[in-house]
Design brief:
The protein is α+β, with helices and mostly antiparallel strands. It is built from 20 helices and 17 strands. Strands 2-1-4-9-6-7 form a 6-stranded antiparallel β-sheet. A 5-stranded antiparallel β-sheet has the order 16-15-14-13-17, with no helix packed on it. A 4-stranded antiparallel β-sheet has the order 3-10-5-8, with no helix packed on it. A hairpin with a 2-residue loop joins strand 6 and strand 7.
């Protein structure tokens, strides 16, 4: 009941940490607090304390004007198992401020009938906050007892589409440890069966999910005996209709020993190596439709290491120059201190004119706070080198044709009944009366300037990327 919002927040957080059940009624009252930080803390505390009357009030907070409060409400509603929250959570999958928390809520409270909106979110938001959660939810629903074969096939296809859109290979079927002879036979069967998995192979395999922003997959929690030191893993990617007949890509990854990779039935890699993230890179093409990727790993004799696999891919750049720059930036380590100075020099890098990091900058483009916890280096590099490659729905560029003949291009950052505010690629904001707009057209290109790579040298870009990748989120929503 302190007059200070900061003290009220600290009190709520402390009571939640103590799991003091007697605080439930007092914290429930704070869901109506005027300060959004207090409402947020109250939501999270109620998810932990679980007082009987919390559900009704938390459902109201799922529509709160403050994004952090909406996010916290979905965290709490999922913890409470409040089924009435499911329609709200499904709708919030299109709310950029709380989509990850809403996804977690849908994953816990929903089922296969919610697969479509979950997959749609993962295809448009390829962050490490969203894609692994979506793949985990679809996999849980797919592998549940009693799921009809046709529905299981639909869910599996959606996982393949998410992996194809993001390049994150997260769901694997794993057989092993087995002998090298048995592994070779399994690979032969998988390559021969292009559409289905042989029944005996499928029945023996485990379905495992890679974890972390780098997508590392631990194939076994125990060290393998010398006579059974081989593993066979496979996954599928789907490139939907509308994509080119063949898509040039670059794969990267690492393994705990000798590994072979087959893509679409063709051998593309054979190496002996110790595990290092992204230590191996190779080019390939992915056809339209479904492609099976098969990996065989053979550990060295008496290997002290646990078997691990990491594999992902990215689409190649739209030009040779951009592709060369992308590869250079992926391979190079920058200096985070120099990168920090460049990033905060708004006139040099332009970053803060559109982006926010912690408490500094504008909210025109995506918030970069905690970027290193949400996206892989590959995604960050590609977003800088080719900003129009992937554009989030919340940052779609629009072109306004005005009655006085002017043309404005930018991102809508505010939209009221009578006017909207557009921010251009220089960070300038334009308030326009809707009555003055003759035509509004979405644009395929990003508002982020393409010439950023010309303003900074490759070394400077590496420094900025190193700084951004080192900026991690604190735990929690």
């Amino acid at each position: 009941s302190s007059a200070s919002a900061e003290v009220r927040v600290a009190a709520v957080d402390g009571l939640a940490k103590l799991k003091y059940a007697g605080a439930g009624d007092a914290i429930l009252k704070l869901l109506g607090d005027r300060d959004p930080q207090v409402r947020r803390s109250a939501c999270l505390a109620l998810g932990i304390l679980k007082p009987p009357a919390a559900g009704d009030s938390l459902l109201t907070l799922a529509l709160d004007p403050d994004g952090a409060v909406r996010r916290a409400s979905f965290v709490a509603l999922a913890q409470l198992g409040e089924k009435r929250a499911l329609p709200l959570a499904v709708a919030a999958l299109r709310d950029a401020d709380c989509e990850a928390a809403a996804l977690e809520c849908v994953a816990k409270l929903g089922g296969p009938e919610n697969a479509g909106p979950v997959a749609e979110l993962a295809r448009r938001n390829v962050s490490a906050e969203v894609v692994p959660r979506a793949v985990r939810a679809l996999t849980t629903w797919s592998t549940a007892d009693g799921v009809p074969a046709a529905r299981r096939a639909e869910l599996d296809a959606l996982v393949g589409e998410i992996q194809g859109a993001s390049g994150m290979l997260l769901r694997w079927h794993v057989l092993g440890p087995v002998s090298e002879t048995a592994a070779a036979q399994t690979v032969e069967e998988l390559l021969a069966a292009s559409a289905t998995i042989p029944g005996d192979v499928a029945s023996q395999a485990r379905t495992l999910l890679a974890i972390g922003i780098d997508g590392r997959l631990q194939l076994s929690a125990e060290k393998s005996a010398p006579e059974t030191r081989a593993f066979v893993s496979w996954t599928e990617v789907v490139l939907p209709e509308g994509t080119p007949k063949e898509t040039p890509v670059q794969f990267s990854g690492g393994a705990s020993g000798g590994w072979r990779i087959w893509i679409g039935g063709h051998s593309v890699l054979r190496r002996d190596a110790d595990f290092q993230l992204d230590s191996e890179r190779f080019d390939a093409t992915l056809p339209k439709g479904t492609t099976r990727i098969v990996v065989q790993i053979t550990l060295p004799r008496e290997s002290p290491n646990l078997p691990e696999l990491q594999l992902r891919f990215r689409r190649k750049g739209s030009s040779d120059d951009l592709e060369r720059l992308t590869r250079l930036l992926l391979a190079r380590r920058g200096d985070a201190d120099r990168g920090s100075r460049l990033f905060f020099d708004a006139e040099k890098s332009l970053c803060l004119k559109c982006h926010r990091l912690a408490e500094r900058g504008e909210r025109i483009g995506p918030d970069l706070t905690g970027l290193g916890s949400r996206f892989s280096k590959i995604h960050v590099v590609e977003s800088i080198v080719e900003p129009s490659r992937t554009i989030g729905p919340s940052f779609q560029t629009v072109q306004l044709l005005l009655a006085d003949g002017r043309v404005l291009v930018g991102v809508k950052i505010a939209d009221s009944e009578g006017a909207l505010t557009l921010a251009d690629n220089e960070g300038k904001k334009h308030v326009v009366k809707k009555a003055d707009i003759d035509q509004e057209q979405p644009q395929p290109t990003s508002t982020m300037p393409d010439n950023l790579v010309k303003r900074l040298t490759a070394e400077e870009l590496s420094d900025v990327i190193e700084f951004l990748m080192g900026h991690k989120n604190a735990a929690g929503p």
